[in-house]
Amino acid sequence: MEQIFYSKEETVEWLMNEYGKMIVRLAFTYLKQEQLAEDVAQEVFIKCYQKLDTFRNESSYKTWLYSITVNLCKDRLRSWSFRNIVINNYLSNSSISKKTPESDLMDIESRRELSQLVLELPVKYREVIIFFYYEELTYQQITQLLGISDQTLKSRLYRGRNLLRKKLEGGRSND
Which CATH number fits domain 1-86: 1.10.1740.10, 1.20.140.10, 1.10.3210.10, 1.20.1250.20? Predict the structure, then answer.
């Protein structure tokens, strides 16, 4: 829900509280390192503070922040220092339901494996899978955020799901 604030600082503070964890998670899906994701999140909110006066309400704050995040992550990925990154954390940090310790462990392992497989997808498939399934954005929000057509989005989701299905059914080829 969009809110009216009295100062730029209050607005940015609210945005950080509201979207900070989602921004870090999104950055992690691109960069695959928690510390780097946190660094990008800080940059996102610095840019947000600097550009808040130019925000035109043509999209939601969430979509605007995601767009800034995606662009910063893609810039980082193009740089030399991001060529051989090792995953040291997994995507989902959602809470675990309380059943038995064994079933909880199985749930954690299943999520970890799926998250790992999603992170192994090429970026163009990974980003649409994450936006659609993990961040629950609509088709319209994703196409606007990535600057792609509706048909391109559908095609990437279809291909991304097929790649995941093949990896899940056949196991990982590099094991």
Answer: 1.10.1740.10
Q: Which helix (H) or strand (E) holds 164?
A: helix 150-170
CA 153 to chain centre: 16
Burial 43-57 (b: 16+ CB within 10 A, else e): bbbeebbeebeeeee
Domain ranges in the chain? 1-86, 98-170
pLDDT tens profile 116-159: 888 888 989 988 988 888 778 888 889 988 889 999 999 999 99
Closest-CA residue to 63 (of 48, 42, 43, 46)? 48
Domain 98-170 falls in which CATH fold? Answer: Arc Repressor Mutant, subunit A (1.10.10)
Question: pTM value?
Answer: 0.56
Rounded to whole angstroms, the Cα distance separating 88 from 60 reads 32
The pLDDT tens digits of the residues spanning 38-81 come to 999 999 999 999 988 888 777 788 889 999 999 998 888 776 44
Cα–Cα distance measured from residue 16 to residue 165, given in angstroms and rounded to the nearest whole number: 35
The residues, any chain, with a CB within 8 Å of residue 79's CB and separated by 6 or more, are none
Q: Reduced to 3 states, what is the DSSP secondary structure of residue 99?
A: coil
